[in-house]
Amino acid sequence: MQTSPTWQSPTPHHDSFWQVCRSYWQLTKPRIIPLLLIETAASMLVAAQGTVEPLLLLVTLLTGALAAASAQSINCIYDRDIDFDMERTRHRPIPSGRIQLRDALIFAVVLAATAFALQTLVANVLSATLEMVGIAVYVGVYTHWLKRSSTQNIVIGGAAGAIPPLVGWAAVTGELSWAAWLFFAIVFIWTPPHFWALALVIQDDYAKVGVPMLPVVVGDEATAKQIWAYTLLLVPITLLMTVPLHATGWVYGAIALYLGWIFLRKAWDLLQTPSDRDQAKSLFKYSILYMMALSAGMVIDSLPVTRAAITALSQQVYEFASVLMPLLTGA
Ligand code: HEM
Ligand SMILES: CC(C)=CCC/C(C)=C/CC/C(C)=C/COP(=O)(O)OP(=O)(O)O
Known about the structure:
- This protein is an all-alpha fold.
- It has 14 helices and no strands.
- Helix 3 packs parallel to helix 6 and helix 12 (250-272) packs antiparallel against helix 13 (277-302).
- 40% of the residues are buried.
- The structure holds protoporphyrin IX containing FE and farnesyl diphosphate.
- It is found in: Cell membrane.
């Protein structure tokens, strides 16, 4: 691993117990984890058609959080040099010396081992293994291999963030279906617009430490074009959940279409003014809301109460039509 010449292991701190807990909490980059868990839960509910055993749901979300926290901790160890050099990340626990490398590594290994053991015990070995694959892809493919060497770093490495839906599906069914892989594809295609919108805003930081994030290398306009292309691909892909897969119904289909329309409009606006940072920031924020709402749409759609309401409604429409049609046709 290369470390920049400015980084030196800082003098250890002598913090109180609660300060130490806070530092370990920060090491896990906790603000990103809830969305990964929302994806996992949505996938579980779609797989189980609305009713999941509470213990299975709880344990899968807990182990998912532990695995993601482990992955982020290892990322913080690996990236300590560039994190020290970037304003935005300088105050993270390792660059600021609040957590030592060895302690962070032990913490990450304990989290991963606990996640694997608990998930195998309560769910199954496939979902537990997928969590470990998530860590391996984020650390090995994204952080080590691509982050510092390719503009496609977050496209290929972004596969890590798309693994939670696979974990959720496997936890419920013990296998991976087309619908599980489609949910994976949705997050995979969503990641570039999500991250590049933010990267447009914070590109100077990445440029300073030589990380070749797309806008740093190709500029604002080419990045906005890529964002537009991925968004254009994303919206129809989300609809495949309903037709032809029938993993979700029309309620989700309508929600996906509405959310996708807003995403497309925002990506289009950015394409018109690629260097408008407010536009990029707005798209980044919306991308998070989009993924939350899309997952919520899947959950609402899969609930037994929604399914029952749709069945009752379509029966009413059918009855109404069978009364109306003879009147209209004069039969
Ligand atoms: C390789 C893929 C990804 C990269 C490089 C990336 C990068 C980032 C960065 C740099 C931030 C700003 C965080 C900060 O200021 O410390 C962020 C925010 C965020 N990311 Fe991503 N992200 C990726 C994929 C994902 C995925 C898959 C999810 C979840 C499904 C996700 C969810 C979030 C959320 C919820 C935030 C907002 C956190 C906040 O409240 O500040 N990201 N992302
Ligand atoms: C199933 C499982 C365990 C999945 C884990 C996947 C995972 C942790 C995805 C998170 C992706 C992410 C937020 C990257 C941040 O990039 P960065 O670290 O380069 O950002 P930085 O510039 O803020 O350091």
